[in-house]
Structure to design on (1133 residues):
């Protein structure tokens, strides 16, 4: 099935989802309310049968945060990207970790690097950065802290010949 | 002039002991070099080549100097007394085995009439030292190594002892010298070939079980570097670490030497006309060959898991040794 | 290395604990917390596994990653599109070509660049060579963790041959920067194809030798069969891909089922685990799938050598990548450690807006607790080795 | 029966496979080794080998393309416009030299050997030197300085360049003002742009150059590049 057909299928199941025909890869945009339902339908509907979550990415846009998940169905041989957006004032998205287990780690990474939270996540800790790191590096306005414990994080500018 | 007569025995003993310690150290040094060379050539490499010119033969000396001048680190949380004591205990356990190794008919520390029994008893001392090292280090990996070592060495004592019983039974004595003397006159008289196939099986079982005794691959679980970092000597460094190393190679020599003594005719040549070559050379040669096989095995085989190690001991080696013992006993009785 | 927490030894059981004790349940949590890593010989770099052990039995595993985090995604946002390629290769440094290919395909899809047949064939050729090199390390270190040293060295000889070939082609041994957006950095040097053929003939007897020395060794089989069984359900739940997924008996190979870069033109058979020596999806299956995959890669390499078409490898390299079309793209390729997915978002400038790399090894590490509970420490070592992780790819 | 069969089969397999493995390693024992004993024997590098960067400064035209292509930003270049008085000479291709390369520093310690700088170089002055044995004790020693100008000369040229730039900016501003006077809509952009460009660069060198302290580094350490920044730092503190 093409992403467009998948979108129609979801819509016919009464799930609020819109199809965005961006180039080169289109995506389906869910609302915060329909996100979990859409994920469950995508997994459990025998025509869709998205067995596996390939990737889950957190993105920061100027006005909102976005979570993009790539799904794959080996059985039906199709792939789709679903997205959900949340406001910057309350960057919280429902978790998918009870739909696909690996989402737990991907969501931890998104939390760690982008700083959105996932409602219902069992174990939302930092995963790549140390527990006591300040800030979320993939935010566009991020600037690294100067010291972490006793380690200076700012590098000296190199000594060139004539400076 | 002071009468040396009363002290002669003592002087000879002291000289012998010093000689053995020197021999052990030299052998261990040589064995480390050999090990690296064997490993290298098995793996299409050269091994050490730089120190000393010819094939890096001075490499072990360089290593020894390095280890001697290294800092001796004792962890703050260690049980210091035990920590310091353990390597010596392990070393002594290995050294004591040399007392009854018959390098030649009259070149033996002490020809005990219970020589074989003594060796089995004294090599078990090593396990106390290892357990001590593992406990005193106060490191969990060391502890695991020590526990594994204890379990393994105590289990493998049994097949080792049972296999050694077979030549003892055939010779009717436990004295090392007498056992060797019974094998004089060509390789067909060696115990390993006497009661084919039983004694051969006994020899194979002894050899494999002795690998576990000395913590060599494929039974090197106590020091499995991929699992336990370095096992019971994780926390050791410098000369104390070298002690463990020395003891390991000393143990390798001892178990191989016992195999050479009781199964392979000790200091006798395979053919009587070759007996013009001195006995110690044959003895050390046979032992060195077995040490080489130990190394060869190490660089070929993967390591067993703890439960499989126990399986091999209790379910394969033990029943086979028992059956062997029974059949050889029958053979001895029937032969009269 | 040693954990500061003391082993908790209570003085006497409290009444409720006594109750549990009388029912045969150990109430004390008489278990040891063991920190395996970050610097541990068997964690293939810097992975930390916090274990709870009952004797040698592992009862709880918590993986901690991030010790090799190099901010690939952040760096990629601050450099231009071609400059990202050297960084991608540092993710899985054992398979740089495969890493770069995924990223380059993503940019090409975004920019709508069609490369010619020669470029595609050469890309397939170098990726398969690199796959063999990568599997050599995977298998070698696997054997090393099980305690066999020598296969590692034999396999490194094979790898060395491949690295020599790739060095001659690209100029570097590990971090090639050879595959470029829209083409390749260089055409092949003269006589290179013959050297690749020579390598194939050199490689042919190596795999039977490996099988004799290691694969069918009884001790090795005993260590791996029935250990760390990964069921297909677990694999799908954890998004496991690549050889680890195929080892569970799941017949899916991107190169055959969703071909990219012209893989549909080659004749090869994806290898799946069948539980030959134990249960499907156990460590031995994961091992043997990789061994057989090397043979299949060899087949592809031979075919690629034979069909090497003519063409200009720099023909379609864009003059400037200043202006990229806006949009987003998700491209996956079959890297040696599972699918490498690159999710690329462009905002029209010369730098990517967001690059996410979805790596196979990341998911494999996540699945470690699910497949290794209740085993011994030695089994855990085997499992960590069998899922074949490169921490550079896990932490990125 | 089945268990017994398995028991003996396991032993049989154990013995045979171990023997096979030992046979294989034994064969390797007598195979020729592959070790290359490095300091005495050396491998020949293929022509494309990426070893160490070198810049043939005489053919470098200071176009900055390599600095822009570098993903790790380790190439530091400063240039000044060539004037008639410099006798800058010609480029290898015969055209007159337009830019003087005052600084061309490469931090080899940070180089990732990706080769992007070599590829973009229009004059092929950036190249790999096929040498890789450059072991040093400090990171500073791995800083490669390819420019040949002594420091005082560099400062002089920089100053001159700033003056020229400022003049140009002035002219541009005047021209813009004229334009603005002529037309009614002044274009602020052309005014601000060169001004901003000029303000950015002179900011740091002029602070050092304008003070009389310029004599100090010139006298005792002639051409010692590594010491002078420390001097300046100390001066700033004082």
């Amino acid at each position: 099935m093409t992403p467009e057909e998948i979108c129609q299928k979801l819509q016919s199941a009464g799930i609020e989802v819109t199809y965005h025909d961006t180039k080169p890869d289109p995506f389906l945009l869910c609302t915060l309310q329909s996100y979990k339902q859409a994920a469950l339908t995508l997994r459990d509907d025998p025509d869709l049968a998205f067995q596996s979550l390939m990737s889950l990415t957190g993105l920061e846009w100027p006005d909102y945060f976005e979570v993009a998940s790539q799904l794959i169905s080996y059985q039906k041989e199709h792939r789709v990207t679903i997205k959900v957006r949340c406001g910057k004032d309350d960057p919280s998205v429902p978790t998918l970790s009870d739909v696909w287990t690996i989402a737990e780690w991907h969501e931890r990474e998104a939390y760690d690097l982008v700083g959105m939270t996932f409602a219902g996540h069992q174990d939302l800790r930092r995963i790549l950065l140390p527990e006591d790191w300040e800030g979320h590096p993939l935010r566009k306005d991020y600037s690294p802290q100067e010291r972490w414990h006793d380690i200076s994080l700012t590098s000296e500018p190199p000594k060139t010949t004539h400076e | 002039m002071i009468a040396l007569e009363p002290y002669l025995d003592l002087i000879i003993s002291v000289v012998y002991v010093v000689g053995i310690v020197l021999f052990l150290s030299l052998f261990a040094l040589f064995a480390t070099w050999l090990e690296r060379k064997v490993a290298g050539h098995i793996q299409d490499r050269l091994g050490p080549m730089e120190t000393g010119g010819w094939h890096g033969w001075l490499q072990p000396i360089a290593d020894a100097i390095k280890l001697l001048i290294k800092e001796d680190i004792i962890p703050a949380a260690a049980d210091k007394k035990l920590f310091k004591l353990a390597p010596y205990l392990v070393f002594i356990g290995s050294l004591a085995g040399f007392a009854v190794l018959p390098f030649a008919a009259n070149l033996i520390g002490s020809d005990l009439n219970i020589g074989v029994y003594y060796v089995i008893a004294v090599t078990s001392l090593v396990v106390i030292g290892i357990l001590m090292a593992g406990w005193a280090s106060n490191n969990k990996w060391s502890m695991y190594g020590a526990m594994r070592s204890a379990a393994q060495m105590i289990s493998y004592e049994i097949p080792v002892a049972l296999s050694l019983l077979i030549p003892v039974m055939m010779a009717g004595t436990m004295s090392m010298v007498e056992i060797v003397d019974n094998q004089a006159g060509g390789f067909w008289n060696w115990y390993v070939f006497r009661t084919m196939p039983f004694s051969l099986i006994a020899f194979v079982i002894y050899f494999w079980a002795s690998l576990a005794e000395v913590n060599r691959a494929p039974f090197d679980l106590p020091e499995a570097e991929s699992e336990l970092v370095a096992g019971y000597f994780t926390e050791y460094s410098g000369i104390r670490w070298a002690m463990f190393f020395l003891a390991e190679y000393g143990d390798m020599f001892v178990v191989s030497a016992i195999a050479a003594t009781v199964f392979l005719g000790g200091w006798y040549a395979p053919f009587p006309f070759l007996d013009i070559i001195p006995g110690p050379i044959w003895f050390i040669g046979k032992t060195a060959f077995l040490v080489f096989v130990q190394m060869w095995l190490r660089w070929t085989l993967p390591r067993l898991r703890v439960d499989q190690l126990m399986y091999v001991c209790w379910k394969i080696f033990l029943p086979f040794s028992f059956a062997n013992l029974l059949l050889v006993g029958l053979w001895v009785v029937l032969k009269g | 290395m040693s954990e500061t927490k003391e082993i908790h030894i209570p003085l006497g059981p409290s009444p409720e604990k006594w109750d549990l004790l009388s029912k045969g349940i150990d109430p004390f949590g008489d278990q040891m917390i063991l920190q395996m890593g970050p610097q541990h010989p068997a964690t293939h770099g810097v992975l930390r596994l916090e274990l709870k052990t009952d004797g040698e039995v592992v009862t709880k595993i918590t993986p901690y990653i991030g010790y090799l985090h190099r901010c690939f995604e952040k760096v990629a946002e601050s450099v231009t599109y071609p400059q990202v390629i050297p960084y991608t290769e540092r993710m899985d440094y054992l398979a740089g070509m495969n890493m770069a290919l995924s990223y380059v395909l993503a940019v090409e899809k975004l920019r709508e660049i069609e490369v010619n047949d020669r470029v595609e064939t050469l890309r397939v050729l170098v990726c398969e060579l690199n796959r063999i090199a990568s599997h050599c390390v995977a298998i070698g270190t696997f054997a090393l963790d099980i305690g066999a040293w020598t296969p590692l060295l034999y396999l490194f000889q094979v790898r060395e041959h491949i690295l020599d070939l790739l060095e001659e082609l690209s100029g570097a041994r590990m971090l090639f920067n050879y595959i470029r957006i829209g083409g390749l950095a260089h055409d092949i040097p003269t006589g290179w194809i013959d050297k690749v053929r020579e390598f194939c003939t050199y490689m042919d007897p190596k795999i039977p030798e490996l099988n004799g020395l290691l694969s069918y060794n009884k001790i090795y089989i005993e260590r791996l069969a029935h250990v760390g069984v990964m069921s297909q359900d677990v694999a799908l739940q954890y998004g496991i891909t690549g050889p680890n997924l195929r080892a569970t008996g799941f017949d899916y190979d991107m190169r055959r089922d969703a071909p990219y870069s012209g893989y549909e033109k080659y004749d090869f058979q994806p290898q799946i685990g069948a539980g030959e020596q134990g249960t499907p999806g156990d460590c031995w299956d994961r091992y043997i799938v990789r061994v057989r995959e090397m043979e299949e890669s060899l087949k592809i390499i031979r075919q690629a050598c034979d069909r090497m078409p003519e063409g200009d490898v720099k023909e379609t390299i864009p003059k400037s990548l200043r202006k990229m079309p806006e949009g987003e793209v998700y491209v996956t390729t079959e890297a040696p450690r599972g699918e490498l997915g690159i999710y690329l978002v462009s905002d029209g400038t010369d730098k990517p807006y967001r690059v996410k790399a979805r790596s196979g090894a990341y998911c494999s590490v996540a699945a470690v607790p699910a497949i290794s509970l209740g085993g011994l420490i030695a089994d855990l070592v085997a499992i960590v080795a069998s899922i074949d992780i490169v921490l550079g790819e896990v932490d990125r | 029966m089945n268990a017994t069969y398995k028991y003996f089969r396991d032993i049989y397999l154990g013995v045979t496979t171990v023997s096979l493995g030992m046979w294989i390693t034994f064969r390797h024992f007598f195979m020729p080794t592959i070790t290359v004993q490095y300091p005495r024997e050396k491998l020949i590098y293929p022509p494309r080998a990426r070893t160490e960067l070198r810049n043939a400064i005489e053919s470098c035209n200071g176009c900055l393309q390599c600095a822009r292509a570098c993903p790790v930003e380790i190439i530091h270049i400063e240039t000044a416009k060539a004037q008639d008085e410099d006798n800058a000479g010609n480029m290898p291709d015969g055209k007159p030299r337009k830019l003087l390369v005052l600084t061309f520093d490469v931090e080899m310690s940070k180089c990732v050997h990706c080769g992007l700088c070599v590829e973009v170089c229009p004059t092929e002055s950036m190249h790999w030197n096929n040498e890789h044995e450059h072991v040093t004790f400090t990171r500073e020693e791995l800083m490669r300085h390819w420019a040949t100008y002594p420091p005082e000369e560099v400062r002089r040229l920089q100053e001159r360049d700033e003056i020229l730039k400022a003049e140009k900016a002035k002219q541009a501003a005047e021209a813009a003002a004229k334009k603005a006077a002529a037309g009614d809509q002044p274009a602020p952009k052309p005014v601000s742009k060169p001004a901003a460009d000029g303000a950015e660069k002179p900011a740091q060198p002029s602070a050092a150059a304008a003070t009389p302290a310029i004599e100090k580094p010139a006298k005792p350490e002639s051409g010692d590049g590594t010491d002078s920044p420390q001097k300046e730092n100390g001066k700033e503190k004082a």
In short: The beta strands of chain C are 32-36, 48-54, 57-64, 179-180, 183-184, 327-335, 338-346, 352-358. Chain C touches chain A at residues 65-66, 69, 71, 73-74, 77, 109-110, 112, 236-239, 241, 250, 252, 257-258, 325, 327-330, 332, 339, 341, 343, 345, 354, 356, 358, 362-363, 366-367, 370, 395-396 (CB under 8 Å).
